[in-house]
Amino acid sequence: MSEEVKETKTAAPAASENQERERRPRRPAGRFQRRRKFCKFCADKSLTIDHKDPELLSHYITERFKILPARVTGTCAFHQRQLTSAIKRARVLALLAFTPLHKD
Ligand SMILES: [Zn+2]
């Protein structure tokens, strides 16, 4: 008895077509140049951190009134500490909001 083994192999799908994932390279060639972060208060010595200046402090809080971390703004540790205290003082004086619920 000769058993006929019929292997009906369909053509294997082309492996190269499965590569739909676009892996983002670390440094794409056409990426825009981001400006180097720097501490604004070190660069401009005349600029003082004052809790009575909500306009200045508002640049260092998010739209939900959270304090932005130094790694985002580039502020140095020394000035970030002053900034944090100033923002907290300004909140107590109601010059800045604690939460969006406080904003009228
Ligand atoms: Zn600084």
Structure characterization notes:
By secondary structure, this protein is an all-alpha fold. The protein has a domain at 36-102: 30s Ribosomal Protein S18. Helix content is 27%, strand content 0%. It has helices at 40-43, 54-57, 70-73, 77-92. The model is unreliable at 12-18 (pLDDT under 50). Bound molecules: zinc ion.
Short characterization:
With 104 residues, the chain is mainly alpha-helical. The chain is 27% helix and 0% strand. Residues 12-18 have low confidence and may be disordered.
Helix percentage range: 25-40%
Strand percent estimate: under 5%
Radius of gyration, whole Å = 29 Å
**What's the architecture of the domain at 36-102 in CATH terms?**
Irregular
Instruction: Identify the CATH homologous superfamily of the domain at 36-102.
Output: Ribosomal protein S18
The CATH class of the domain at 36-102 is Few Secondary Structures
- In total, how many beta strands? 0
Bound molecules: zinc ion
Structural class by sheet pairing and helices = mainly alpha
Estimate the mean pLDDT confidence: 81
Rough outline: globular
Instruction: Give the number of helices.
Output: 4
Outline the biggest β-sheet.
none
Low-confidence stretches: 12-18
N→C terminal distance: 92 Å
CATH structural fold name of the domain at 36-102: 30s Ribosomal Protein S18
Order of helices and strands: HHHH
